[in-house]
Amino acid sequence: MIRRVGRISAEFAGEYGARLSRRISAALLATLAALWLSGALWLALHYLFAQADEFGIVRHPLEAPVVLAHGVMALLALFLLGWFAGRHAGAAGSGRRIASGWLLTFLLAVLVVAGCAQLFVTSAEFQPALAVLHWALGLALLLPLLVHSRRASAASRERAANGAAHGPGPQPLRQGGPRGAGRRHSVRS
Asked: pTM for the whole thing?
């Protein structure tokens, strides 16, 4: 029963998400790249371009707009991640990259929680630790993402090679067709 449901959901995800999945994937990757770059830019502005004067530390004028753009892109990335993961995880749930996918999911969850916690945790004790966790994990997340996508492209090439040798894989569910095709009906007179 579970295998049948998994197969049907994978077939459905294949047809439902095939065209849109590439667009969502491209939008998600572009958003994640912009998010990473804006975070790295903010770190550079915050730590390398701050200047001390007689009243304290003067921040770079671009620091506030960059962190605002980073926050807006983070919301967009969360939306796209949810949309993409709903299709991607179901369709790729039986592949070899499950471990790297779960690791990426866990790291993204910690990154999001640490980022959001910086807005709400007011303790002077925890605030610096949350900030370091967020920016260290954000900078380091590039590596697991590249590993996961590298495995994805290798799995795609392998599937294409095996598909050509062994024929097509499971066929997607078809939309339309005669109404009630494949179902049993009881007809009342």
From this structure: 0.68
